[in-house]
Amino acid sequence: MAYHTGDRPASVWENRKRFLSIWGLIPEQIIAGKQIHGIGVHPVDSLDLGRGSRQGTAIPDCDALISKSSDVVLAAFSADCLLVYLADVYRGAIAIIHAGWKGLLKEIIGEVIEAFTRELGGKPKSTLAAISPGICFDCFEIGEDVAAAFRNKGWSKFLSPQNNYSHHRYLLNLEEVCRLQLENAGLFQSNIQVSGYCTRCYPDYFYSHRRDGEKTGRMMGFISLKG
Ligand SMILES: [Zn+2]
Hints:
Layout: H1 9-21, E1 30-32, E2 41-44, E3 64-67, E4 73-78, E5 82-88, E6 93-99, H2 101-105, H3 108-120, E7 127-131, E8 141-143, H4 144-152, E9 159-161, E10 169-172, H5 174-184, E11 192-194, H6 209-212, E12 219-223
Parallel strand pairs: 1-4, 2-3, 7-11
Antiparallel strand pairs: 3-6, 4-12, 5-6, 5-7, 8-10, 9-10
The structure holds zinc ion.
């Protein structure tokens, strides 16, 4: 579904077209960012249509999109990283977030919810969140340096030492770090839905960067308001 991993652009376009047609949407409606594992949040509306729909047009430095426009399809791509969807249904405000360990370490969720509140008038107490499939706790091994960075944030409870075959290796629970940040930003626990599927554990369903390497495909997630 993404252009940046070497698939033929015409095939990517066709895949997006088939996928979106299920909801009566078209690939021209896609707005997407060039994801850099940063914390760039971009408010977009119908004037931004086309940014990210064709190869080379994605919004630079953009790991999150927010909008109140009913004709846009906010899209993001992943193959192990989490995608987080937000919707304040009362105010018609939506967001999509690409959140891997780097983005979560930089607290991207709080950053997006702040922009969502400031720019769109979204309210955390009436916002629903969904967390996509992503790499699970058992599959996501990290080194001492990354573990130390999470420990320094006070998040050691999301780490577990991996002592089977190697010292100084840890497992990291990305999904729970994500949930904590949503709750810290003011969302109700009961308004957070988690897929629970692991991208690495289910090769028949998902691409996984950890399992398949750099050149694997990308899933697309999107969120859109009903017009
Ligand atoms: Zn797994």
